[in-house]
Amino acid sequence: MEPGRPAAAGMGGRALCWLLCLLQAGRAGGAELTFELPESARQCFHEPLQRGLKFTLDFQVITGGHYDVDCYVEDPNGKTLYKEAKKQYDSFSHRAEVAGVYTFCFSNEFSTFSHKTVYFDFQVGDEPPILPDMSHRVTALTQMESACVTIHEALNTVIDSQTHYRLREAQDRSRAEELNHHVSYWSVGETVLLLVVSVTQVMLLKSFFTETRATTGAVST
């Protein structure tokens, strides 16, 4: 027999159990979406919420114009909970005071020609506890439990960082493409201008020689 094997099996079972708990402990429910917002348009979204439920709205303009948009949030009674104008990005958290359908809208009505691309992340509810009965514990966490909590927080940080860098990459790519279009148009314009100047100079020099020949012929006669 190998005395160390049962203990190792027990440690492995507990580690697997905590790992499953860590994987099942997700973030608060919700949705994230990237959508197109045409010029002079407004797009609204609706979400039914129970009283006392917390929700968080994060948004960012990825492409278009000055990368800004109007945003507001209303409760079921039509009361404005949040309203900002021409924001590039922002975050808003609130706990529902009444049950019903909450509305949040993005408006590009102030722009007459700039097409926008908007990203938002709408999270509903508080994050569930990582470990069972964690909120009612009176004893200190074990080393493995502390490690699970640390890993969970690190994973949340990684998710937030990935979202941030993904949005930055999309925004930078849009700016690079826009700059490339400007450079292409400028190059075409310079080429056309160079051709016009060249043709004009050739015609001007040709006219000088023509006038010189005409003058010489008249003097000889």
UniProtKB/TrEMBL annotation:
Entry membrane topology: Single-pass type I membrane protein
Main subcellular location: endoplasmic reticulum
Protein name as annotated: Transmembrane p24 trafficking protein 3
Q: Which UniProt keywords apply?
A: Endoplasmic reticulum, Membrane, Signal, Transmembrane, Transmembrane helix
Record's Gene3D superfamilies? GOLD domain
Name the gene behind this protein: TMED3
Q: Which first-to-last residue range defines the signal peptide?
A: 1-30
The record's SUPFAM superfamilies line, in alphabetical order, gives: Supernatant protein factor (SPF), C-terminal domain (SSF101576)
Q: Which domain of life is it from?
A: Eukaryota
TM stretches of this protein? none
Q: Which organism is it from?
A: Terrapene triunguis
Q: Which family does it belong to?
A: Belongs to the EMP24/GP25L family.
Q: How is this protein annotated for GO cellular component?
A: endoplasmic reticulum membrane; endoplasmic reticulum-Golgi intermediate compartment membrane; Golgi apparatus
Give start and end of each GOLD domain.
Answer: 42-124
Spell out the subcellular localization from the entry. Answer: Endoplasmic reticulum membrane; Endoplasmic reticulum-Golgi intermediate compartment membrane; Golgi apparatus, cis-Golgi network membrane; Membrane
